[in-house]
Predict the 3D structure of the following.
Amino acid sequence: MQTEKLEIMGQIADLKDVDYRNTLAISVLIELLIEQGLFTKAQFAQKAHELENQSWAELLLSRRKKK
């Protein structure tokens, strides 16, 4: 039982590390795209706000319509 708890705690710690690395990679990509002039921080923030306000189903439907 104690071993299982330790394993779960280790898996959670690994997930936190992976989450941090993924977040860092996404942040780096966003900053590079902004620096290259592909979009502005304001445009990024607006799009993030739009997507955040959509339900998951609406988001999937809108992506399918674009294809």
Observations:
- The chain has two domains: 1-36, 39-67.
- The helical segments are 2-35, 41-53, 56-66.
- The radius of gyration is 18 Å.
